[in-house]
Amino acid sequence: MSTPMLRVQGLVKRYGARVALDHLSFALAPGRFVTLLGPNGAGKSTLFQVLTGLFAADEGDVEVAGLSMRSSVRRALTHIGVVFQQQSLDLDLSVARNLQFQADLHGLPRALAATRIAEESARIGIAADLGRTVRELSGGNRRKVELVRALLHRPALLLMDEATVGLDPKSRRDLLQALHDEVRERRVSVLWATHLVPEAESADRVLVLHQGRLLADGTPAEVTAALGGDSLEAAFIQATATRGPGRPAPG
């Protein structure tokens, strides 16, 4: 078997008495679209902050392409691209300058960066917007710019944290399609965090997170059966309807 692109082992993250991640373990194979499905407060954003090195776990470890985030964090992060829930583009710079800045941060030669910016922008459908300021773009196209930015250094693992918040249905569909294309054509591993069940229904695999714990793991059909519902949505709502005493979990 190939090395998992992402391995999470016994991950624990606390905020004082609050447990955000409770001995969380799972692994992601290369070239899969995996949805991390959980209600608000399940621990999704906390997990992403640990995966990207913004927070340190209290216990456990994360491996990216076989590299430990504890002992080889810089090398591990080179394999990761990320789109956070909060947009972080410079609204007053052009799309091209935003992307060039990211390429510079990764140390890409200017000629290579220009080629990748052109290629990825064409693939995602924003080539005509490269000269416009980000402020001029719709919410959907701003997300596409962030996706292009995350792909410039050719990551093997792409983390998407509630990336469709505030998007209209067409923009949501287009963004999901672009991600599925990356998985199919380049075997990128995608971990897509969401609380929206329809976004999980086309995933290769669904991880249901609640109160920092993994409730179910499998295909959408397997998760539906494991949680006991007539549909994935019904099963998800039923399984996450209650919160145990003393177990608030931020993120």
Automatic annotation (TrEMBL):
SUPFAM superfamilies tied to this protein: P-loop containing nucleoside triphosphate hydrolases
InterPro entries hit by this protein: AAA+_ATPase, ABC_transporter-like_ATP-bd, ABC_transporter-like_CS, ABC_transporter_ATP-binding, ABC_transprt_ATP-bd_su_PQQ, P-loop_NTPase
GO function terms (MF aspect): ATP binding; ATP hydrolysis activity
UniProt xrefs under CDD domains: ABC_DR_subfamily_A (cd03230)
ABC transporter domain mapped to chain residues: 6-236
Origin superkingdom: Bacteria
Keywords: ATP-binding, Cell membrane, Membrane, Nodulation, Nucleotide-binding, Transport
UniProt xrefs under Pfam families: ABC_tran (PF00005)
NCBIfam families xref list: PQQ_ABC_ATP
Recorded family membership: Belongs to the ABC transporter superfamily.
Protein name as it appears in the record: ABC transporter, ATP-binding protein
Species assigned in the record: Piscinibacter sakaiensis
